[in-house]
Amino acid sequence: MIATKSRTWYAAALVFLTGLAITGCDHVTDPEGPSLIDRFGDFSVVDSLMVNRAEVDFTASQSVVFTARFNKRVDWIVEITGDSSGAVKRIEGFSNELTAENARWAGGITDLPLFKSEPVSVALLIVEEDADTMRTSLEVLVPREYEGDVVTGFEQDEEGANVVLRNFEFELDPTSGVSMEVPAGEEDAFYILRGSDTVVDNFFVGLAEITSTSDDGYFTVPTTVPEDLFFNAFLYNFGSENTIAILEIVVDVNGNGTFDDGTDATFSSGDIVLEEPGWSAFSRSVAEFGLTQEQAEQIVAIRPILISDNSTQPTPRVPVDFGLDYITFTAGGPLQL
């Protein structure tokens, strides 16, 4: 009886150890879990970086697919950079292959500005591996179109909005206005507000008034439901630490379809402190500005305002500035980049 129990125990143990060994062998090759090759094997490129097209028109429902193959799964990054815009799109993954499923570009961005019609450079970086960066390039014939109604992008030949600089106390710098000082947030031109609060104990520097050129005087918006209507703009931080930006939406009160300063109602974003250098995206529903549905139908002007932060200004006081570009209204959420 004891011998029978011993043989039974031995057989069960043998089955368990055999199953364990099989499981261990599967762990080496199982594509769903980290293999020993993935963890400890030397990295090598099986097929280098390739692109499925040399030119792309994103408005024609075209996209770009990047392909490559490696001998093991690794963390990788495809970084696409606009040669003239400086726009950046990153696609990241963990696999041993780049395919249409995990490495497709539809024209969007990761970091502003937006891409434009331009050559772009592509780099494939293999994270934490001793591997050379693989590179290629292609040409964006037509950049992606974004949903929403555009107020203005400040291009010189643009229609749809009239922009007037208001330098009430003559504190704005002559460089204020339409500019190409740095790569624009969208296309080629953007708007600068720049100046010094030279009037004693004054925080206001200057503003611009952007009015509609439509027949009825109102900006076209994709919805008038305040919670669903989003006001979007790109803002540029030049590194002036004492700068505060304010964006105002102006609503026609007397129903004459024109902007009447002192009569029409203004709704403010409040202080916008630009923290990171370069372009950033601002987006807020008009409900957060305080507009009703009726007022959302009567937006007659947009006013960007430049403020100097008195609490942080040194002595002597230093100039303040910010850039503005691509003002849009979108429905259902912020502008999707």
What does this structure look like?
The protein has helices at residues 2-29, 36-40, 286-289, 293-296, and strands at residues 45-51, 55-57, 64-82, 88-98, 104-105, 118-126, 134-142, 149-152, 161-166, 177-179, 190-195, 204-212, 229-237, 243-251, 265-268, 278-285, 299-308, 320-331. The protein is mainly β and 337 residues long. The chain folds into two domains: 39-142, Immunoglobulin-like (Sandwich), CATH 2.60.40.1940; 149-331, Sandwich (Jelly Rolls). Strands 1, 2, 3, 4, 5, 6 and 7 form a seven-stranded mixed β-sheet that branches. Strands 8, 10, 11, 13, 16 and 18 form a six-stranded antiparallel β-sheet that branches. A hairpin with a 5-residue loop joins β3 (64-82) and β4. The longest helix has 28 residues, at 2-29. The model is unreliable at 1-30 (pLDDT under 50).
Keywords:
disordered N terminus; mainly beta; elongated; Immunoglobulin-like; 337 residues
Please render the helix and strand layout as text:
Elements: H1 2-29, H2 36-40, E1 45-51, E2 55-57, E3 64-82, E4 88-98, E5 104-105, E6 118-126, E7 134-142, E8 149-152, E9 161-166, E10 177-179, E11 190-195, E12 204-212, E13 229-237, E14 243-251, E15 265-268, E16 278-285, H3 286-289, H4 293-296, E17 299-308, E18 320-331
Number of strands: 18
Structural class: mainly beta
User: Helix and strand succession?
Assistant: HHEEEEEEEEEEEEEEEEHHEE
Shape field: elongated
CATH architecture of the largest domain: Sandwich
Uncertain residue ranges: 1-30
Care to give the gist of this entry?
It is built from four helices and 18 strands. It is mainly β.
